[in-house]
Amino acid sequence: MRTRKTFGVLPRLLLIAGAATALTIGPATAGLAHNQVIGTSPEADSIVTVQPKELSVTTNDALIDLEASAMIVEGPDGLFYNDGCAVVDGNSVTGTAELGASGKYTVTYLFTSIDGHATEGTFNFTWDPAEGEPIANGLKTQPVCGVSGSSVDNQEIHEATDAPVQGESVWVTVLWIAVAVAAVGGTVLLVIVKAKRSPLPPTE
């Protein structure tokens, strides 16, 4: 059975809230489109011989800076070699890593496009360390940014139909309320915009 990496319930719901807002005010942002990845560092399918320290994904437009942005670096041994965090800077999202065993690495990233849509993708590169390059120890469980000593439920690779993690139920409720508020706000905005555009009736 195929599995996929997850970034925890909280980041996904933050991205859902942004996406719901974008859909609600869609007519006002019709000119916007999903960001397209135009480059990565290291370059996809390249061979890396020196510790890269930083890994990045560059897109064709500015990104929305949400705490939900994330990056996971998995080695050929099934271990993880970063802290799960990612920083948005303009049109790029960047994370740090210290690589370990030589072989093929997979970088999974998550960011929010300028139109509010969540975008998840991956790229690969091969680590062939030069003589003298430091070798890091990997983590057995998938890291969650900002969470120290996270439970395995938070960190492991889940099945595609994973359930919400216990202890995040309060955040789940709060964020769904935020989605509802954003939807109502977007509707009110559309009514106001349409009212301003509608011609006034002729006066007697």
TrEMBL record:
Keyword field contains Transmembrane: yes
InterPro entries tied to this protein: CopC_dom, Cu-Rt/internalin_Ig-like, Ig_E-set
Coiled-coil segments: none
GO biological process: response to copper ion
Signal peptide: 1-30
Entry GO terms, CC: periplasmic space
Keyword Transmembrane: yes
GO molecular function, one term: copper ion binding
Transmembrane segments: 170-193
Pfam families: CopC
Record-annotated CopC domain positions: 34-126
Sorted UniProt keywords: Copper, Membrane, Signal, Transmembrane, Transmembrane helix
Descriptive protein name: CopC domain-containing protein
Organism this protein belongs to: Lysinibacter cavernae
